[in-house]
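User: These chains co-purify. Model them together.
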Amino acid sequence: MSVATVKYYLREGLLAPGTPVTARQSEYGEEHLRRLRLIRALLTVGGMTVQQARDVLAVADDPAFGRHERLGIAQYMLGPRITPPEESDPRRELWDEVFAELRELLTELDWRVYDEAPPLAALTRAVVTLRSLGYEGGIDHIRRYALAMHPIAAEEYAVLDRYPVLEEAIEATVAYTTLYEPILLALRRLAHEDVSARLHGTARSQPPPTPGEPLSSS
Amino acid sequence: MSVATVKYYLREGLLAPGTPVTARQSEYGEEHLRRLRLIRALLTVGGMTVQQARDVLAVADDPAFGRHERLGIAQYMLGPRITPPEESDPRRELWDEVFAELRELLTELDWRVYDEAPPLAALTRAVVTLRSLGYEGGIDHIRRYALAMHPIAAEEYAVLDRYPVLEEAIEATVAYTTLYEPILLALRRLAHEDVSARLHGTARSQPPPTPGEPLSSS
DNA sequence: CCTCCAAGGATAGTTCAGCTATCCATCAGC
DNA sequence: GCTGATGGATAGCTGAACTATCCTTGGAGG
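Assistant: Joint model of the four components:
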């Protein structure tokens, strides 16, 4: 990573400035290196924008919040920020309908989440999109997913709760929340591959064509 | 969506040109609209790049492959394309170590996947990153995730197998694979929120601060 | 004490993706 | 024949994430 990039992160507020020893020299410690590694991880593996990373890390660093607030807020900042369509938008009706169904599901599952939770908006949008395309976006599917995810989330939370030092817990929250996402998605796809191979053993008996380049025909 | 954008998608090969009725007029049908909706969904909800969307849709349209190949290849094209570090790269050692562990896990689970499967590279990178940051990237965690995902993947595959018309099945594969990802991730975060609220009921008793704007202090 | 140059800071430039706007030629319809 | 919407090509725009340059400063070697 180049010096210019580090300067850029400093400018953008992702990285705290070192304590200036003199006017022309600042001191950077081990925590700066860790932070830099975390930033790179968020941007590359986590696929976050610099904006998002800044906001998340700002909360993580903000002593104005207590432990659980900081963990919770960090969570809130992590995902994409979806806003519902305008009142006037014709798609709003479908949105409201889906949102109501999802709320009902959450009530049924007895999940204690806020109506304003960003992931709920993201969930609503995804389901709305699926249905708009004419695909199965039924609540039964969602319920199955939800039931599969809950124990995993509980497990993860237990891991996070074991960090005694708040700063480390925050950073761990950010890291786990973000970096386990690609893991989850990759495993889903590997599972697809296995299911596919299992159902029709002959398919893809040879290594599949290399992706990345446009395919031969077409 | 503006006409200019549609032209752009045509140029980029995401959308098949209509059959030219005359030199100054082409005919677009219902399938073009569906394709456009799918493209928008892949780009916005799915978070894909135009490049990726093009490649995936190219396979979906390519009659040179059979049903299962096309489903499989589409899967392969969908995810991010990760390449392992160079042989010379010092991080390569860790990469190989993690990769070997993951292979072993997959063998233990009896999942039939290729060593070259892109999701496997993505998985490896995520685990490598976690460990590089000093976090828990143990195989036991991964196994738990894998066991949770497999039945879900099987269920999804069953849904896809019910599409009789190949073209529809392909498009459905792309749609489901991509659009269920944000659903999965959103549910994981909602589950986190529930677990957190459950463990310390007082935390976040008031609606959390609005994300999107820089917070007050900090 | 003077010079030198590495580090800090500011500013402008670069690259790429994803659009967006303009221009021009064409030809169905009046 | 004239018009004007449409297709096609080309160039421009915007934002994100860097990257390169320049200028300033002040401690260290001489």
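Chain B has eight helices and two strands.
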